[in-house]
Amino acid sequence: MKLILLVVVVAVAAFYGYPMVNEDTTSECDALERIAVRVIPGAPGQPAQSLDAMAGQFLGQLLQGASKGQLMQVAVRNQFPNLPVGAACALLYWKALVDPEAYRKEPLGQWP
User: What's the domain range around 84?
Assistant: First the structure.
């Protein structure tokens, strides 16, 4: 029983903690903003150094410096009103990390 409880605690800690540690942030929504800045501008079929990609990354960095997760918090709260904001941001972070192509198509996509 203790082993099962330990596994569950470690899984929950990794689910919430990895995005913050990996992105060097203090909240899940700030980590989600940082990965979105990296993932979204690199759309398929678009050269890595195209003008659109560079402009998107510049604006994303500008936004990231001013926001610190608040913009993503509001967007996630509006999209998923029945989920805690931290849990929704962590879910979307993992979606962007595991399947960046699907995240590009629908950044605040629907969950079943």
Answer: 2-105
